Request: fold
Amino acid sequence: MGILDQRAAHWPHQFSAHLIPAVLLLIGVGCSAEPTSTDSLAALEKTASAYNIEIIAVGPSFPVKTFHGPIDGKELADSDLQIYSRLFAIEFSLYPPELTQRALLKRVVICRELSFDGQLRNAIPDFEHDTLYLDGNRGAYDKTYLRKVIHHEFFHIIDYRDDGSVYKDDRWASLNRDTFRYGNGGKNVQDMAETSVLTDKYPGFLNHYSTTGVEEDKAEMFANLIVDPEYVDNRAAADRVILAKVFCMKENLARFCPQMNDAFWEKVRLTKRFDK
Reply:
């Protein structure tokens, strides 16, 4: 993934642009034709309007200066945008609008060849400008992965707005076994291909990436609770640390945003995704 910090993550990862106006253009339901550019923009426009945010997908302005370093990228090809926009709209529409409001999210930028300080990233949460950057091309062969990237990175923004801290959470860390210590952040496992693959090789954690930092542990839990809740349930049934983390995650989210309640998690559980 990619938090703007020296330990920033990977997820293997002055705004002057043409903004998508918040105008409702409804997508045809039940149409078997391939998505078009109009469909792509309509899906994003509908999402922008529903959440009162800007979504920049055409003519994004790069580089963007931040306190920690420059963010760079390029405009996503139209054919890739047609695929990614629908995936993004479906995933983002799971959230209650109150969640994005409390997270103070102002805009989402969809692009390709996204990088931070010269290092390629799949996504970047820019706290300084209340912006979420998403690369709609990198890792596009795996739709499940793309979905998880969206939720993982947005959680970093939620995590920051919750208490102003991302890299420290004593309560969460206390759920781990006494001898465990987190790694040095996701930035240092950029070239580890299997780091984000779900596995039971790391008791108390969903994958290797979760062990690199408390911020990544929480973001991985959030993303997988939304995209792959059945897997998390199965792990939690056999791992008391993961079970405790599920409870802690849901409790913290409900405190931050009351609409993140049992009804939300039931909605997530009933969501059907046909393209993997």
User: Anything to note?
Assistant: Residues 1-33 have pLDDT under 50 and may be disordered. The chain has two domains: 37-163, 170-270. The first strand starts at residue 54 and ends at 56. The longest helix spans residues 143-163.
